Amino acid sequence: MPQRSKWLSAAAIGFLLAWFAKVPSAPADPAQVAPSKESGGEVVAEDDDANPEMQGLFATAIPLLPLAMDQEAWSSPEQRIAIGSGLDQLAQASAALGQHAVTRDLGFRNLSDSLAEDIERTRNHYAEGAFEESRASMVEIANTCAACHSRLSGRSDTRRPPLPDGLLEGLSLHEQSQVWVATRRFDKAMAVWEAALADEMQAPGQLDIEGYLLDYMTIGLRVLQEPARVRSTFAGFSQRPDMPIYLQRHLARWAIALDAIEAEQPPADPLVRARELAGARGVPQPDLLGREQTVYDLAASSLLLGFIDDNRASPEELSEAYYLLGVVEARSVDSYWLPQAESHLEAAIRLAPGSASAASAYALLEEYVVVGFGGADGDALPDAAFGKLQELEVLIEKSRAPGSPPGAGPPAD
Length: 413
Ligand code: HEC
Hints:
Elements: H1 2-7, H2 10-21, H3 52-68, H4 71-75, H5 80-101, H6 106-127, H7 131-149, H8 173-182, H9 186-198, H10 204-209, H11 212-223, H12 227-237, H13 245-262, H14 270-278, H15 294-310, H16 315-333, H17 341-351, H18 356-372, H19 383-399
Helix pairs in contact: 2-3, 3-5, 3-7, 5-6, 6-7, 7-8, 8-9, 9-11, 11-15, 12-13, 13-15, 14-15, 14-16, 15-16, 16-17, 16-18, 17-18, 18-19
Heme C binds at residues 50-51, 54-55, 57-58, 61, 108, 111-112, 115, 141, 144-145, 148-149, 154, 157, 182-184.
């Protein structure tokens, strides 16, 4: 990719490191978090909830990410010491996150484990001199950061100045938005998507295929919680003359749903409301459930992730929450950053194997995994996936009350 190599010349790397050196990595002193010029006049938020694990990840991942976006720089002997020790530090930062994760919910722990695995794989490939594999794996690390950051509501992290825009020139839209979400500059990511949707050179159907509409809705609805902004962007987008008919129809449905979501008050019981939304009850309904349901599915997933994050519910309630999350994700909102429907369905089974949710989660997981691997032929399944399904089936079987007929699921009461 000659274009990228030119983009990240040695001078640019030097600039990046100099920029990075100015960034307060642990602004414990309030004076350090005063609004800075680098932030382009934006008001820099108070550092009310400094998070040492995340600051460690940020400080160690940021210098590596742009190097990983550049094939030549990543395999260059001159960078070997910097990249090698950078990866060691990143692994330490992720181990610190792992220690913190034990106090968090299962979904959070799974993502923290995925991050540790990604980093381990990246280091191994790099140590073996498999530069292209390790580079691709480093880029995937940003996906895991983004997947975790897109779970809960939050604001853009404006404490630090954003990476200079010029450094992301030459990256694909997906890579740009991924870096912005990985570094929690949701404002920058939204701007990238909004520009793409307005760009006549980008075909609307292609933007959809590449997942930008879903990414935009995920951050706009689940993280920033701004349905009005999404609605107004889509209103402009739907006017484009090159709009395919199927997408025109989805957009019309989504506009109605966005209106309805905007009028929603925070529910007294998020699990009950999420159950209704996932079943399209109490909301203006399309005739068939599918991608038309994306907005409600995102709203449901947002309530469910908040409910799970609270970490106070009973195992049965949590099992239902993970099951519903698996349903909406498998149906319409599985993340392009890191698909998680499978791990959510597995969590639903492990949390309360005897529950009705576990039985339903198993059926969906089996379909998702088997069909996902190209058909009902069990032989085509990799051993690990097949073994996992069997293990979960045994878990459910064992928790079933003695004497109840096979396939009956949990006791009816
Ligand atoms: C397992 C979930 C998870 C993963 C993985 C994750 N983050 Fe985070 N991150 C969060 C959460 C949640 C917050 C919001 C702050 C909080 O709630 O503590 C956050 C906040 C941040 C912040 C804001 C700084 C602060 O002090 O609050 C930065 C920067 C950040 N993350 C960078 C990263 C980078 C870079 C990666 C990947 C190398 C990453 N994170 C991976 C969950 C995650």
